[in-house]
Hints:
This protein is mainly alpha-helical. Helices cover about 70% and strands about 0% of the residues.
Amino acid sequence: MSLDHALDAAGSKPAGKRPYFLQSPETERVLAITMAVVQELAVTRQRLDTLERLLQARGLLADGQIDAFAPDAQAAAERALWSQAYIARVLRIVQQENEAAAAGDEPASEDVAAEVARVR
């Protein structure tokens, strides 16, 4: 996976303007970023816990080995690429809003629903 591919994948979004449910778009943006980080951390913690338990149960990992690990150049490069994609996912809402502002105004899904209800 290249950095460009990772950034493109992180920025994908559904059609239409993003609906907002809180008092301000800024509050909604901070909540979306926070929830993206929370989701990523929860998945990572679960996978790490699983891995450590499996390795310790098989006698392949001793206490302290993970803390003492130093990645080689290849692993460090892969980690750096992953970090860039991760940051892009966390800040996806900011990227999408910038793209929407650059592309012009799109109708919000709630505006389309209101228009359909009015026409009926």
